[in-house]
Amino acid sequence: MPDGPAGRAAEAAKPEQTTISAGFLKIFGLGTLILGDSGIGKSESALELIARGHQFIADDVVRIRAGSNGGLVGTAPPLSRNFMEIRGLGIINIRAIFGARSIARSARVDLVIRLKKWRRGYEVDRLGLKSGDDMVILGRRIPQLAIPVAPGRNIATLIEVACKVHILRKKGYSAPDEIVRRLERVLT
What we know:
Blueprint: H1 4-13, E1 17-21, E2 23-27, E3 30-36, H2 42-51, E4 55-58, E5 61-66, E6 72-75, E7 83-86, E8 90-93, H3 94-98, E9 106-108, E10 111-117, E11 135-137, E12 140-142, E13 144-149, H4 155-170, H5 175-187
Parallel strand pairs: 3-10, 10-13
Antiparallel strand pairs: 1-5, 2-3, 2-4, 5-6, 6-9, 7-8, 11-12
Helix pairs in contact: 2-4
């Protein structure tokens, strides 16, 4: 690459992009990255969400680039588009199993769900009064929610509820804030 103004112009014109290891679905219209350690159940949860009518975008590898409006857009690499790996089943084709409506080509990255293995002593915000730590991708802060994974928990349902909670917060509603207001009214 040439030095000087031509090199800087070429660098500035280069699209911002990165690749991360995650599942990526469109849930209630939200582009949702699902992250977590290997074997924690990301793909199984994604499969359940697709069976419930949400759209699949990528499994394991997500390409993320800056969109024209300043947001981030995620998509699958062409090689793995429509495919998912499920332990015990191998590679499956989501489009062939669930049909074309189960697939979205790309989506804006709106939310990150991080699945964390439940461990004794793992502290969880039980009231939801603290907002999660945002994840920074290509310099943009994306809201992130952590969901503890333990036997008996329905992770797909929890991911759906996390998306609904995020949508309500974007509209200005917070259930924890409402319960705090109610408590204050009762106590005053």
